[in-house]
Amino acid sequence: MDTPQDDPPPQGPEAEYLAALRDGRFCYQRTATGRAVFPPRLAAPGDGAALEWAQSAGRGTVHAVTEQPQKPPAPARVFAILDMDEGFRLFSRVDATGPVQIGQRLIARIATEADPPHVYFVPEAPQDV
Amino acid sequence: MSISFRKPRKMSDHAFPRAACAIAGAATFGIGECPGYSALEMTARAGLLALQDAGLGLADVDGLFTCLPQDLLGGLAVAEYLGVPARFVDNNRTGGSSFLNHLMTACFMISAGYMKTALICYGSNQKSAAGRLVSALRGSVYEAPHGARMPVAGYALAASRHMHLYGTTREQLGAVALAARDWARLNPEAFRREEMVLDDYMSSRMISTPLSVADCCLVTDGAAAIVVTALDRARDLAQRPVAVLGAGAETTHKEIASMPDLCTTGARLSGQRAYAAAGYGPGDMDMVQLYDAFTINTVLFLEDLGFCPKGEGGRFVADGAIAPGGALAVNTNGGGLSCVHPGMYGLFTLVEAARQIRGQAGARQLGKADLAICHGNGGVLSSQTSVILGSPDTI
Predict the structure, then answer these.
(1) Neighbours of B310 (CB within 10 A)
(2) Which residue, of A38, B110, B350, B395, is most buried by count of CB atoms within 10 Å of its CB?
(3) ipTM above threshold 0.90
(4) DSSP state, B60?
(5) pLDDT at residue A5, as a whole number
């Protein structure tokens, strides 16, 4: 593993990630060998490899999905695990007007003003209404 | 003075002290609704009942293992409340698997000679006090802002994936719920004992697709405790000893997005470790007592613990195969789905197995009840711990 020898950054990766989101950038991390890591960490899990930031294109595929009905008249809320094109996986709300299927392509939006800021996803292709 | 260090043994699943320790006492208290009692009081009463069951007293307890629903330092609270001379307090909290981890640690410590008698106890008044699941889970900034109801969403995501890959159906998940209910109907202590048929299951309110209310564990009060001591000592106590033959654990993640494979849990490794230590395999088990927080858990754990191939769990549980009179006895008390779920169910798997192995399970008593695998789950399929218990004949 790479032993940290430099001075530590002024803030941790979580704060850096959130700061980037506030600036409208959705970032993940990767190792020198191209392995994607998310959520952000100080070192790659398992081998402690050094990590660098990269910006995600925000495109991913639904790996698993669940829909939680709400009290009427609120619409059901959809949550998914996404396989991002860059090779990492995350959990997110999906804003969709129709059913969301495993294998469906989604694209990220960023709630920059939310506390904490976060990404959520919408269908990549316009949905049939 | 010279100090010599023994060379550490090679890490091995066989390092577990097989049959060195036994469950000498077991008890439950306040299953269902227990108004007027605090979680601490329920825990203490279960502990006292388990000691009485074993024929031991508080002065015998030198190791205390517990975690309370909301008091993160609950181990200290229980030690003070009971006034036990604890040489060691373990407040390990890995969710519902905590108590199987406690048992694993206690067996190592007792067999190593550090302590003689461990009391493992737990109680929760979540139904009377809060009326909902009291979970210790706290979401990260990557999960919490999405506002999903957790932990059910995590299990629902795993279920959606299992259905997608293996064709598992809601009817098959329903078979898990119905089997649990049929067992509960034989258990006077169980909270939900009214008949449930497939129509009831299929029409129950959806919580997080594909999981409905009938796929989710109960919200109840309840307390449980076991007393663990050396097997040789347990032979001279009040009850027929229940030997701890093997144990193993594995942790794969905390939040569901970081689970390496949504359809394969750490139970595969925890089970392998427990079987290796015990010298028995899944085909030898007379019963399975597993943490059925949701119906999908039963499917996943039966696969991962070796009772059927990966992906076959749904078909395996269909048609009453795990119900009373079926091919494999699973959760003979009614489980978290129909007997009791005070927030962390794991300890109840051990109590039920002990009662079955001792032949004290009443109308639900199995004809042959010599070997049990108990399986605890914590978080969102995150922490997995397996324990194999056996009658004296299995040692």
Answers:
(1) 15
(2) B350
(3) yes
(4) G
(5) 63
